[in-house]
């Protein structure tokens, strides 16, 4: 008997896709259709489906990393007393 080697690929519904996109800081329709292929998928929706299936992670989206860096930069700026030092601890 030949073993069954088929792989099940689950298709996320609108709610699941929405949750994944929100987690990727893709809050607008435009941000969900950047489709730059940097992650290896031709569309953001295919990348989200890969994340849904557990075969990829949001950290492999260049725009997620960029958004994360911008958020951390804002937090860092807010943590400074105004002295301008990148080592400011207030
Ligand atoms: S790297 Fe990010 S923005 Fe580019 S296609 Fe993949 S999921 Fe979309």
What are the SSEs and their pairings?
Layout: H1 14-23, H2 44-52, H3 62-79
The protein binds iron/sulfur cluster.
The site of iron/sulfur cluster has 12 residues, from helix 2 and helix 3.
Provide structural commentary.
The longest helix is centred in the C-terminal third of the chain and has 18 residues, at 62-79. By secondary structure, this protein is an all-alpha fold. Helices cover 41% and strands 0% of the residues. The protein has helices at 14-23, 44-52, 62-79. It has one domain (14-79). Iron/sulfur cluster is lined by residues 34-39, 41, 44, 47, 61-63.
Provide a concise account of the structure shown:
41% of the residues lie in helices and 0% in strands. The chain is mainly alpha-helical. The longest helix is centred in the C-terminal third of the chain and has 18 residues, at 62-79.
Which percent range describes the beta-strand content? under 5%
Percent in helix: 40-55%
Structural class: mainly alpha
Can you tell me the overall shape?
A: elongated
What small ligands are held by the chains? iron/sulfur cluster
Number of domain modules: 1
Q: How many strand segments?
A: 0
Major sheet attributes = none
Rounded to the nearest angstrom, the distance between the terminal CA atoms is 69 Å
Features:
single chain, 90 residues, mainly alpha, 41% helix, elongated, binds iron/sulfur cluster
């Amino acid at each position: 008997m030949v073993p069954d080697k088929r792989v099940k690929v689950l298709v996320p519904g609108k709610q699941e896709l929405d949750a994944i996109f929100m987690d990727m800081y893709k809050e607008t329709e435009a941000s969900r259709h950047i489709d730059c292929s940097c992650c290896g998928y031709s569309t953001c929706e295919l990348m989200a489906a890969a994340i849904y299936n557990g075969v990829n992670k949001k950290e492999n989206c260049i725009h997620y990393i960029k958004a994360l860096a911008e958020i951390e930069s804002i937090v860092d700026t807010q943590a400074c007393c105004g002295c301008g030092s990148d080592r400011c601890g207030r």
